Amino acid sequence: MDRWQAMRIFARVAETGSFAAAGRQLGLSPPAVTRAVAALEEAIGTRLLTRTTRLVRLTEAGGRYVEDCRRILADIAEAEAAAAGAYGTPTGTLAVTASVLFGEIYVLPILTEYLDRHPAVSIRGLFLDRVVNIVEEGIDVAVRIGHLPDSGMAALRVGAVRRVVCGAPDYFARHGIPADPGELARHRIIAPTGATASLDWRFGPGAPRSVTVQPRLACNTNAAAIAAAVAGWGITRLLSYQVAGLVAEGRLQRVLADFEEEPLPIHVIHPEGRRAAARVRGFVDLAVERLRADPRLHQ
Fold it and tell me: Could you state, in chain order, the average pLDDT of each consecutive group of 10 residues for the chain (299 residues)?
């Protein structure tokens, strides 16, 4: 009998307090259970159980060893579940969440690619500018921007973005380029007013400071704030990924770059770790590969 099976039998004897009960649960005869525990004790070189006609108790060494056995057996079960999840056929419904613009620009193409690869999977995409409770709302995978709390979930870093101040080149041609955050007071400010927006624009990195802006135009969506900036009406502040394409095209110009805060990390997170179903693991692998390869997410 192999060591793994002997450990499994010993742990069941410790749990039930009986060789006979352990044998019934495992489908083994009492003599087979006795032989397995004896062989384990002989291999280790110490007694793990004290036996009487009425009672089976753990020795001090057995008490320590059974905890190690349970941990090792749990690791083996998790590894087997991971293998089944990694190599099984993805099926069922996958729920994925991200913020609105990030979801539309970066996550949606990954969703459609994944669906093309796996015809037995359907996807529910939830793009919201709020932090979704993954467990309560039944989410399998989330893409999060910002520093993560210690939640115990599996998290894979895929990039980083910055908060950037930008406007159209023709706006700066007419109103000048601010050389310091303090000069924003004399500019037209376009402020997004979403769930995570603030009128206190923080700058850094060397000497962190905060500037409270007085927007003349407040928009409840990032898309509207971007549109107003592209039209040349004023200056706005957004995350770099939201305007990366427009900056590359020359339709928006990034300013005050020397005063930007440290970048914010981007993570792909999911609650089940290595025990995740095949559809989850497959999507996470694809999303991590695609997002890490995108240069717009490493600014």
Answer: 85 89 88 91 91 84 90 78 67 93 95 96 92 84 88 87 96 96 95 79 85 93 94 96 94 96 94 77 95 89
Q: What is the pLDDT of residue 230?
A: 98
* pTM for this model (two decimals): 0.67
Pick the CATH number of 92-154+274-297 from 3.40.50.970, 3.40.190.10, 3.50.50.60, 3.90.76.10: 3.40.190.10
Q: Which helix (H) or strand (E) holds 241?
A: helix 240-249
Please give the class, per CATH, of domain 3-84. mainly alpha
CA dist list (Å): 62 to 22, 42, 58, 66? 16, 13, 5, 6
Distance CA 182, CA 178 (A): 8
Assigned token pair, 298: 């490493």
Task: Give me the pLDDT at residue 84, please.
Answer: 62
d(CA 137, CA 130): 13
**Other CB atoms within 10 Å distance of the CB of residue 12:** 20
Q: What's the count of helices (H) and strands (E) in the chain, helices before strands?
A: 10, 14
